Amino acid sequence: MKALYIGALAALFGFAVTCQAEDKKVTSPLEYKMKDIDGKEYDLSKLKGKVVMFVNVASKCGLTPQYKGLEELYEKYQKDGFVIIGVPANEFGKQEPGTDAEIKEFCTGNYKVTFPMMSKVVVKGEGQVPLYKTLTEATPKDGKVEPISWNFEKFLVGRDGKVVARFSPRTEPSDEALNKAVKAELAKPAK
User: Fold this and answer.
1) In whole angstroms, what is the distance from residue 92 CA to residue 95 CA?
2) N or C: which end of the chain has fewer CB within 10 A?
3) Distances (CA, A) of 145 to 10, 74, 152
């Protein structure tokens, strides 16, 4: 009887540990909270049911003019449930050295950015934020997790909260394949 009790207790304990681990496993980039560019908490879960594009951005990069195209893309599809999240990062050539306030002033002043911008974070290497770990793990290439390659890499998340596409930094926001992917996700019903 005692052995049965201990076995049942161990099985129960093992089940509880398994459930706890499963609860903590993040399956969607929309399960995180971040700080926005103004320092306020931004709960990405409020974007569930929308199509979201995460873009790591920088103000002093040869690709910085993509801000204009990103804003146009956002304005074009926002009414349909599309959101772009700009995520400033300084890992690539130290091309985002400014403070959050300087980044905000640059984006709004030069490119009239209205899509949500987050506080500057680390998207690659030591100190990488969990959001970018989830994004890169969801888009392996040849079975291997590929780190962010440069500023303006784009991750498309469908209405179901799963990463559906990844676009290289040089892919312009006006790119036909990128727009086709956005439209395909927007055509899916919200869950």
Assistant:
1) 6
2) N
3) 36, 28, 18
What is the distance between the alpha carbons of residues 152 and 141, in angstroms, rounded to a whole number? Answer: 18
Q: What is the pLDDT of residues 10-37, one digit of tens each?
A: 433 443 333 333 345 667 999 999 999 9
68-94: b (≥16 Cβ within 10 Å) or e: ebbbebbeebeeebbbbbbbbbbbbee
- Whole-number percent of the chain with pLDDT over 90: 83
89 three-class SS: strand
* Domain boundaries 28-186, corresponding CATH code: 3.40.30.10
Angstrom distance (rounded) from CA 91 to CA 58: 9
State whether residue 24 is helix, strand or coil. helix
From the candidates 61, 122, 129, 138, give the one annotated as an active-site residue: 61
Tens of pLDDT along 137-161? 999 988 899 999 999 999 999 999 9
61 annotated active-site: yes
Which amino acid, 188? K
Give the HSE-up count for residue 180: Cα atoms under 13 Å, Cβ half-sphere.
4
What's this model's pTM, rounded to 2 decimal places? 0.86
Segments in the chain below pLDDT 50 = 1-23
- pLDDT for the residue numbered 26: 61
